[in-house]
Write a structure and sequence with these properties.
Length: 114
């Protein structure tokens, strides 16, 4: 994936409609915002993008879908701390792709030599 700097994309949600979001990031780390600038995170258990808060330098889900009005305290143009971004990018098995993409991906075929 090439680096994106605020590019508007349409993303699917497992349990909701497609959503227009702005993306900043690359294959190691990415963050998402609504077109009006509110930070959002994908919540795999809900299958939806949710407005984000920042707790201890990391995005946390508000539990309010990004298709609703933003809740009080939702973060505008939020950025996780450098330590959190680095830890996410270096997490075992992390490819930089959104968690939702990884969950729907087929595992690679096994080689007969394994």
């Amino acid at each position: 994936m090439a680096a994106l700097f605020g590019e508007q994309v349409t993303l699917g949600q497992e349990n909701g409609p497609e959503i227009e979001l702005l993306v900043w990031g690359d294959e190691h780390y990415a963050r998402y915002e609504t077109p009006d600038g509110y930070s959002v995170v994908y919540e795999p258990d809900a299958g939806l993008f949710m407005y984000a808060y920042i707790e201890d330098g990391a995005f946390a889900s508000s539990g309010i879908p990004a298709t609703a009005d933003p809740p009080e305290g939702a973060v505008l143009h939020g950025v996780e701390s450098p330590e959190v971004r680095l830890a996410r990018a270096q997490a075992p098995g992390h490819t930089g792709r959104d968690e939702a993409e990884r969950e729907t991906e087929e595992p690679p075929p096994r080689s007969e030599e394994q």
